[in-house]
From TrEMBL:
Compositionally skewed regions (Low complexity) per UniProt: 204-214
Organism of derivation: Anopheles christyi
Name recorded for this polypeptide: PIH1 domain-containing protein 1
Superkingdom field: Eukaryota
Alphabetical GO biological process terms: box C/D snoRNP assembly; rRNA processing
Family (UniProt): Belongs to the PIH1 family.
Length: 320
């Protein structure tokens, strides 16, 4: 369903599309009586609801007025428990509002909202990026785990083997040792390289956590990017290196091969706390990946080598 809300202290509309997916684990089973006890004890964090929140994006309402919308996905079985109302749904809506505020610093007025009767969603729903590590963290937090939970944990730790005759997929991001060695090789093989800087946008991450908010204003993606991500695009060959090669990583070096690009002006690069979004719209390149590090978005630098057609991105690391 779709919630129509307003940013606190304004008349600016903000819509939330509540979606369901099996890709997110459910919260632990809870009765309304247990939830009432938790709320009366002043411990709402004792019951946590896993969800994935997309970045707010611009759209227009039925009056052609500008507004914003985001999609929030929860588990399918849990959705069935709250679909028809009750205390659990009221609690969920409160959590949705908190999630938007914590992640994107957007305060919504909880006293002024309604669930739309004749419209299930605003705009077009966009894909979510759900990380295996987030799924594992949720399941491991359960007081007791079912056989199904344990089987899923085993599968996440040990991915299924390939069928006979199939080829393994090359990883989008490949972590292979020290960045210094690679840079030396490149300098030796091409001493007359021309590199041009690429502007880097700092953008809030959109992984499945609702805790923590970005230290910068949230970046609202161009709606065209959404269409591109759903169309036929090609992923550039890419590698990720770390410095130093052992111990705590201080910097990540990403290398992205864009053979069809002529200049840096064709490239758009957005780097979030744990996310790299790269596109060259006219050439059909799109890459959207997460890394297991916290990146210092404010110090990211990127240069495009017009000879080798490699975009090199330097990303200082805050913490692993």
């Amino acid at each position: 369903f779709c919630i129509k809300a307003y940013k606190k202290g304004t008349e600016e509309k903000f819509f939330i599309n509540l979606c369901q997916t099996d890709g997110i684990p459910p919260p632990r089973d809870i009765t309304e009586d247990e939830l009432i006890r938790i709320l009366n004890d002043g411990e709402p964090n004792a019951f946590r609801i896993p969800m994935s929140i997309t970045q707010p994006r611009p759209t227009v309402d039925k009056s052609s007025q500008g507004c914003q919308v985001c999609d929030i996905a929860i588990n399918t079985k849990f959705y069935a428990n709250i679909e028809f109302g009750g205390l659990l749904r009221e609690f969920l809506i409160s959590v949705l509002f908190d999630g938007v505020e914590n992640k994107y610093n957007i305060s919504l007025d909880e006293s002024n909202f309604r669930i739309l009767k004749n419209k299930k969603f605003m705009d077009k729903l966009i894909p979510h990026n759900i990380q295996n590590r987030d799924v594992k963290q949720v399941i491991e937090s359960y007081p007791t785990q079912s056989d199904e939970d344990r089987a899923l944990l085993t599968e996440l730790d040990n991915p299924r083997p390939l069928m006979a005759g199939t080829q393994p997929k090359k990883p989008l991001i490949e972590e292979i040792g020290d960045a210094g060695t690679v840079k030396t090789v490149k300098n030796e093989t091409n001493s007359s390289r021309t590199t041009t800087p690429v502007p880097v946008k700092a953008t809030s991450s959109s992984s499945g956590s609702v805790s923590g908010s970005s230290t910068i204003a949230p970046y609202v993606p161009d709606p065209t990017k959404v269409a591109i991500s759903q169309a036929a695009t090609k992923k550039p060959e890419s590698k990720l290196f770390r410095e130093p090669s052992a111990g705590r990583a201080k910097r990540l070096i990403g290398e992205f091969h864009l053979p069809d690009c002529v200049s840096s002006s064709e490239i758009t690069l957005d780097v979030g706390e744990d996310r790299v979004l790269l596109e060259a719209r006219k050439k059909g390149y799109l890459l959207d990946v997460f890394v297991d590090y916290r990146i210092d978005e404010s110090k990211v630098e990127a240069h495009f080598d017009t000879t080798t057609k490699i975009l090199q991105v330097s990303m200082p690391v805050l913490a692993a």
